[in-house]
Design a protein that fits this description.
Length: about 290
Amino acid sequence: MIPSAPRSGSGSRSTPAQALRVLQAEYRFKFKRSLGQHFLIDPRALDGIVHALAPAPGETVIEVGPGAGFLTERLLETGARVVAVEVDPVMAGMLARHTGAPATLRIVNADILETDLGRLLADSGAKSCKVAGNLPYQITSPVLFKFLAERDLVGRMVFTVQREVGVRMASGPGSKDYGALSVAVAYASRCENLFGIAPSAFVPPPQVRSVVVRLSPLPRRLTAGREAALFRIVRAAFGQRRKMLVNSVAEAAGGKEAAAAALAAAGVDGARRGETLTLDEFERLAEKLG
């Protein structure tokens, strides 16, 4: 059972819902479905995310999709330096307005998927970071893959995702929810489902429930080349779930013959399907192809 978010201790300041109404009136803002904009306004959930991330004073936090800044302001109150990456220029303006744009906040109007994390940190005077964000459904997997692949620069990640994605992240072989994201998360991190969030905690409310997950990066067990091969093979294996492995990973392996040879060397039957392979078997296959 997923526990409830911790209770808020946020005093008498205006609530996120009140602040959002003021910002909407000032900016005449309309929510963009294309960007998956659903703003988390529940103080308990927002405080729970900050508690789970636990940024220390002076640490750098990358916030993905800060929106109007309700999580941002709480992160700033910890003494952390926040780099807020927001793709919507109107939102970036609202964020500056709501937070007052303090010196410890840097607002970057950019697409996180097209952003070089190393350069972003260097430009912000940091060598590593923690990461937080409420992830739109359509970019959840790409964002997770991005940060997992670059986890040498990341200390901890706390994300709000759709509940079905949280289930998928923690699924194992043979489950209908087991997929490329499951393997990548298990290989690169320790994943915890912390607490659920109801649709009513968002404006506008989504059609599904959400969950807050915490990812704690694990050390690399494969070389950079083999890890890249692992992610490539896993995507291919689950991209064509009904196909036998020898066929589904052929392109990623450089051809069917190369795929067959690698599968044989790894001791994996090429007639199997990706959903039956364990993380260890995927790693053995990556070692033969990386």
